[in-house]
Design a protein that fits this description.
Two copies of one chain form a homodimer. Chain A contains five helices and six strands. By secondary structure, the first copy, chain A, is α+β, with helices and mostly antiparallel strands. Chain A folds into two domains: 101 residues, Orthogonal Bundle (Arc Repressor Mutant, subunit A), CATH 1.10.10.10; 53 residues, Ferric-uptake regulator, C-terminal dimerisarion domain (Dna Ligase, domain 1, 2-Layer Sandwich). In chain A, helix 2 crosses helix 4. The longest helix of chain A is centred in the N-terminal third of the chain and has 21 residues. At the A-B interface, helix 5 and strand 6 of A face helix 5 and strand 6 of B. Strand 6 of chain A pairs antiparallel with strand 6 of chain B. Chain A binds a DNA duplex through helix 4.
Chain lengths: 165, 165
DNA sequence: ATTTCAATGAAACTGAGTTTCATTATCAGG
DNA sequence: CCTGATAATGAAACTCAGTTTCATTGAAAT
């Protein structure tokens, strides 16, 4: 039986500055290509939003990203942040994650293994976990139902180790 | 390796009228006890809401239940339906389920095995599936994280067999 | 009958998410 | 460089499922 991998995935790339720059460059480039395909441009506002989301060590709500981006560029608007997050989601670079407070959070999906979430209802912390075996049986159920799965949401709500005391 | 059970769970009790009456009686009684514990009563409006949700062959939104209840009793209000659904949820008799259209749906949870959902983004149909093995590996991940799981949401979005053509 | 408090329906409110709109930036062709 | 076309933006307004308020009704307990 395969051991279920236990990984804290998120700040992986953010730890090493050089690695972070490479990661940012790679994702920026992908984003730029996607935008160009739609006749759009990678503006400095859009790049700022992407940078904020990438450098965060945790999952961010729209207003988290807005606040972070505003620090770097006080003229940036909430609508732009919103629209950029939607664009990132659209092209598969970012994904929405549920939360304990009802506000959707965002995470970078590109260049990261698939994972699901455990959400603490006390502190709001979102932990990521991978379970290839779980995926396997999920896929089996999908096949049995002849269902064409496009995306899924697997979120476990409860108390994290620290908040459980 | 256990075969993943494939069950269409929902209208199970609703098929047989006698069985349905027994089921309704049992759940009504549980609900009544819960309400009495809080100094509340099982009013005819509350019972009507419960009956509507029980007899439905599919998952219902607040307004679905409201419409169904209004047919039986035109004076019933949306607020009452809302509050009753919350009460049913509170005591574990009902649960919220996501949907393709953004409106939360409700299902009866009492006396039914645990299951997750596949939601068709074309027709809105919500299929239920069970996978004990999947649960098993999910629980393993939860244990490994020393997480206290209170509830979870596992919803797969895509196209059902019919809508996939 | 009177008091008390749960229960109700209609209507108003909430707030995350989204869209509108007038203005500003950007770019391609001249 | 200009110039026209169109992408992009920020502020503010809007949406709408979900929720709460409030004045009224109902029901149980004296």
């Amino acid at each position: 039986m395969t051991k279920t991998a236990e990984v804290i995935l998120f700040p992986r790339h953010a730890k090493n500055p050089a690695q972070f720059r490479t990661w940012l460059a790679s994702i920026s480039s992908t984003f730029k290509k996607y935008l160009e395909g739609k006749g759009l441009n990678l503006t400095h506002q859009r790049e700022e939003v992407l940078k904020c989301l990438l450098s965060a060590g945790n999952h961010m709500s729209l207003d988290d990203v807005y606040a972070a981006a505003k620090k770097k560029d006080p003229t940036i608007g909430r609508a732009t942040v919103f629209r950029t997050l939607k664009l990132l989601e659209e092209c598969g670079l970012a994904a929405e994650v549920g939360s304990a407070d009802g506000r959707t959070r965002f995470e970078i999906k590109a260049d990261r293994p698939h994972h699901d979430h455990m959400i603490c209802i006390e502190c709001g912390r979102i932990a990521e976990f991978e379970s290839p075996m779980m995926e396997r049986f999920q896929n089996k159920a999908i096949r049995q139902h002849k269902f064409i799965a496009l995306w899924h949401r697997h979120e476990i709500f409860g108390r994290c180790e620290l908040c459980a005391k």
